[in-house]
Amino acid sequence: MATKKLTYKEATIEMEEILEQIENEELDVDELAEKVKRVSVLLKFCKEKLHKTNEQVEQILKEMEG
Amino acid sequence: MAENLTLFELNRQIKDTLAEALPGTVWVVAEISELKENRAGHCYLELVEKDDASDEIIARARATIWSYTYRMLKPYFETTTGRSFSDGLKILISTTVEFHEAYGMSLNVKDINPIYTIGDLSLKRKEILDRLHNEGVFDMNRELPLPLVPQNIAVISSATAAGYQDFVEQLEANPYGFKFYHKLFEAFMQGNEAVPSIIAALERIFEYEDFFDAVVIIRGGGAQADLSCFDDYDLAYFITQFPLPVITGIGHEKDETIVDLVAHTKMKTPTAVAEFLVAGLLRFSEHILGLQNSISQYAKDILTHEKLFIEKIASGVNVAGKLFLASKNRQLINSLYEIKSAIEGYTSQKTRQLDEIESSIRFASRSFITECGQKLSSGIQDLKYGARHQVQKGNHLLENIGFKLKNDVQNLVLKRGNKLTFWEKQIQLLDPEKTLKRGYTLTLKDGEIIKSKKSLKKGDLVETRFSDGKVESKIEKL
């Protein structure tokens, strides 16, 4: 599981769940801090994946037969 | 009748009969099974009719469209139908029936009615659509979920197609800086090879199913295009079964092709497909930014709220504390009052007891004192009397003793005076000076008087005192 790459979907679902928990006031202040930290990690992951070129992926493309 | 005909004569008769029976032109419906254009621009066709049920060929004829006619008919047909004039089409042609003795029968096509072909095609198209529906596959690709972020794109197109270039440019120059990974899988986009080559491309993409998010089928502009391959049942069926969503950008203004209909998403042009993909990423990007904003806003609100809550609790605690203190204070005061009154009660009780004790003591002591006082004054009287008596007695005694002492002392002084005179004479007789004068000497050693011979030894120095001085001598002989 540790090596499994996070997907956009997983990241989004996790963030949506966190938002829901916050909206429903299910988190205490300590948990909130932790979750907010987690959200920033997920956001960073999504933003980087959206914008930054991943050389490994480029390499996979190059190795494909056209 | 017995006269034989030559073949030529026979063929001539057939030709004449045909010309007589079918003069001028007739409208004929037929399907093109083969089509050849020669260098001169003539078109040679093989026309067939198939049995509707068995699909078997039940009629066949050759036909020719001479170049002069073909140059006009072909563009007319193609613009009207949107199809290239090619085999597989059903056509309605106006033709003369010609019979050449040497080459046999041939149809000479004079005109063509493309409306028939359109009708036929739409009928065929309907048949294909019905079939796909009946097979339950029509919506299969359409129902695939498009990935949240279609970022890895397999492209089916021809490398040289203008539409492909537009697509790539549009995708890569997106104003949001989104990164797309796209890969071209080349295929023919028209002609007889189109369907098998597109299917082959899909099969190659299938090998990387896990990598790609979507397949894009795009073809370049071209004013007049043959889209017949996109109405092909086999291709349409293959797309319905494909596990990745297919997005089309085939670039035509006419009715949607069957491939467009079964595809997940149909866009009009390759550029539109690129915009669609960019919009997908933008939507996602905005969604996560929205999440970010909501979460940070909520988090802020919660923290603010929490802070207020804590402050409220703090002030509540303060108030409660004050109230508690006040109530305890009251209790204390009450207790103090109680204690005070208890003490006061006790004190006054004890005071009363004390007063009683005191007054009884006072009474007792007063009578005791009175009693003692009486005893004392009578004692004092006794003492006074006794003492006076004793003093008088003492005085008498003292007076007697005084007389006696006086007499005794006078007697004693006289007696002693006599004795002293005697002793003085005796002492004068005993004085060593007088003794020395009478011829006695004193011998001393080291200042001590020598009373015995035993105190001396030979060689001692001795002093001999006379009444008129002293001499020193050494003991020579003992």
Brief account:
The complex is a heterodimer of chains A (66) and B (478). Chain A has 66 residues and is mainly alpha-helical. Chain A is 73% helix and 0% strand.
What does it look like?
The complex is a heterodimer of chains A (66) and B (478). Chain A has one domain. Chain A is built from three helices and no strands. Chain A has helices at 8-23, 29-51, 55-63. The model of chain A has no long low-confidence stretch (mean pLDDT 84). With 478 residues, chain B is an alpha/beta fold. In chain B, 54% of the residues lie in helices and 19% in strands. In chain B, strands 1-2-3-5-4 form a five-stranded mixed β-barrel. A five-stranded parallel beta sheet of chain B has the order 7-6-8-9-10. In chain B, strands 12-11-13-14 form a four-stranded antiparallel beta sheet, with no helix packed on it. In chain B, strand 2 (43-50) and strand 3 form a beta hairpin. Chain B starts with 6 loop residues before the first helix and ends with a strand. Chain A binds chain B through residues 8-9, 11-12, 15-16, 18-19, 22-23, 25, 27, 29, 32, 36, 39, 43, 46-47, 49-54, 57-58, 60-61, 64-66, and chain B through 147-149, 151-152, 177-179, 181-186, 204, 208, 211, 281, 284-285, 287-288, 291-292, 294-296, 298-299, 302-303, 306.
Features:
heterodimer; A: 66 residues; mainly alpha; 3 helices; elongated; B: alpha/beta; Rossmann fold; 5-stranded mixed barrel; 5-stranded parallel sheet; 9 helices
Low-confidence stretches of chain A: none
Number of strands of chain B: 14
Query: Helical residue percent of chain A?
Result: over 70%
What is the chain-wise order of helices and strands of chain A? HHH
Overall residue-averaged pLDDT value of chain A: 84
| Structural Rg of chain A | 16 Å
Main sheet: strands, sense, barrel of chain A = none
- Structural class assignment of chain B: alpha/beta
**Biggest sheet of chain B, strands in spatial order?**
1-2-3-5-4
Which overall shape of chain B is indicated by the principal axes computed on the Cα atoms? rod-shaped
Number of helices of chain A: 3
Strand fraction of chain B equals 15-25%
What general form of chain A does the structure show?
elongated
CATH architecture of the domain at 140-286 in chain B: 3-Layer(aba) Sandwich
Measured distance between first and last alpha carbons of chain A: 32 Å
Beta-strand portion of chain A reads under 5%
Quaternary structure:
heterodimer
* Biggest chain-to-chain interface with counts: A-B, 32 and 32 residues
